[in-house]
Amino acid sequence: MATGRTRDPFPVIDAALARRLVDAQFPQWADLPLRLLDPAGSDHVIYRLGEELSVRLPRHAGAIGQAEKEAEWLPRLAPHLPLAIPVPVGVGDPGAGYPWPWAVSRWLDGEAASAEALAGSSRAAAELAEFLTALQQFVPEDFPVGGARSELTAGSLADRDRATRAAIAEVGGVFDRAAMAGLWDTALGAPGWDRSPVWFHGDFHTGNLLTVDGRLSAVIDFGGLGIGDPACDLTIAFTLMSAGSRAVFRAALGVDDATWARGRGWALATGLNAYTSYAADNPRVAAQTTRQITEALIG
Question: What is this structure's pTM?
Fold first, then answer.
């Protein structure tokens, strides 16, 4: 009998649930230990499975399409990219009270990239430009341009207008309100992407870059992967780089003024969203997003 109670949109995810899912659906890995990755991202709870695998369980409905998307596209992208990316090895089904698909991938060693280590690195800036160039140039035989599938499309800056202006008003005592409003107006007014749609990562920031021995080694978390305007990927220029390395990155990537303006808009909008959502409770996010917003204002 229905009780009228709605399902919690944020399911409780713990090691016992992850263990049940793995053991039931991938019994070949039932003997491998599970270890929680902490801190995890805002979209997934991540466990290391043995030494060579990871289990990623979406936290909320907005992340539930990522497992299938990565399983389809990452194996095709990987041979064309100069940095390592995740290798999907399985997509799990809902089960054990968990409502959504989930993923098992090869583990990638490394530490999250940091501005403290790489902000002034022209080499890192050039390597990131090389990665984005290779991503944008990937054209499979069945490239879905013109009526691209919905999971490969992304929202626009205009879609974020109301929320971004509200965030500007909310944090106007912390950052320069007039400068933020001016940047945002410029980004919205910049000419749109007028070339053929290209691939973009969609969430290209420091937390999704890995380093080994101080060198960039991998790009992870392709949940925002899509086709269209690549300006959103310029966010990395403001989360990781300083003014000098940013100039190297922009020149290597060949970014025009309009795309750069839209990229600054993306950096501001996403930085403000994370700052207003998480900074009060998370000092790490507060520091990262403060830098992102400040660097976007610098340009």
Answer: 0.91
